[in-house]
Design brief:
By secondary structure, this protein is an alpha+beta fold. The chain folds into 2 domains: 3-82; 130-259, Sandwich (Immunoglobulin-like), CATH 2.60.40.10. It is built from 2 helices and 10 strands. The strands form 3 sheets. A 5-stranded mixed β-sheet has the order 4-10-9-6-7, with no helix packed on it. A 3-stranded antiparallel β-sheet has the order 1-5-8, with no helix packed on it. The protein is elongated. The chain starts with a helix and ends with a strand.
């Protein structure tokens, strides 16, 4: 293989890296749109396009790295094969003993390392409540710093709003189960959902989707600590329960508990 061919392969690898960078540049606006578009269908479509372009960029970068490693290896082989062999011609009257020659050590060129595009961590595979499939009127997009963090569960809270005897096991009967959480970066009008489930089945009574700060009794500001109580009609029956908390369609946390005899 000639040096010209090796040089051509290197340029092909560099072209692949440039093409992958272009795909990353196309994927980034789609990622932003997937997080901020007011309609769920638009966010899902943007997320799918961003994923396709990001995967294509990764494939191009992988091919480029393989080509660079291959050309480096072939250059080493070609240099070893084409290196001239020194011969010592002795004089007619005596035999000359050639001094040992030191074989040069060829250090292969390390190929550049491709930097993968930024891909957000996938959201856990949790089915969305039906209330999130249709956007609420007057909803505003959530900011990138909007967060809800689940703290604990308890059957009661004290006068200061703190949990009393928190835990994950509760007796059956007529009583409340209270979810405690903190939040930040939540502007008025952001869609929030607290979805309650029993053994994987949606509990419509306790669940709710609303516009943050625009419901009477829930004007909590952008940052703070709050609670969300639930008391089922007819009381709690034995089984496994969980609360899934969403900002728009982004899962924020899951609180699990059991009701036992």
């Amino acid at each position: 293989m000639t040096p010209l061919t090796l040089s051509l392969l290197r340029w092909v690898a560099y072209a692949l890296l440039i093409a992958s960078a272009i795909l990353v540049g196309l994927a980034i606006p789609q990622l932003n749109k997937a997080r901020r578009a007011p309609i769920y269908a638009m966010r899902r479509s943007a997320r799918e396009r961003a994923t396709r372009w990001a995967l294509a960029a990764l494939v191009l970068q992988a091919l480029a790295v393989v080509l660079l490693i291959l050309t480096s290896y072939l250059a080493t082989v070609v240099s070893a094969v084409t290196a001239p062999t020194a011969t010592v011609t002795g004089a007619p009257t005596y035999t000359a003993t050639p001094s040992p020659t030191r074989t040069p050590t060829v250090t292969p060129t390390r190929p550049p390392t491709a930097t993968p595009p930024f891909i957000p961590t996938p959201t856990p595979a949790v089915p969305l409540p039906e209330s999130l499939l249709n956007p609420l009127p007057s909803a505003v997009p959530a900011g990138e710093n909007a967060r809800i963090a689940v703290i604990t569960l308890a059957a009661e809270q004290d006068a200061d709003g703190q949990p009393v005897a928190p835990g994950s096991e509760f007796p059956p009967g007529d009583h409340r189960v209270v979810l405690f959480f903190t939040y930040e970066g939540l502007a008025d009008g952001v869609t929030t959902t607290f979805a309650w489930y029993k053994n994987g089945e949606f509990l419509d009574f306790c669940s709710d989707t609303w516009l943050w700060g625009l419901v009477e009794g829930r004007a909590r500001g952008e940052r703070g600590r709050a609670s969300y109580p639930c008391e089922l009609p007819g009381g709690w029956t034995p089984g496994g329960y969980e609360v899934r908390v969403f900002i728009e369609t982004r899962l924020q946390g899951i609180a699990q508990f059991v009701v036992e005899e």
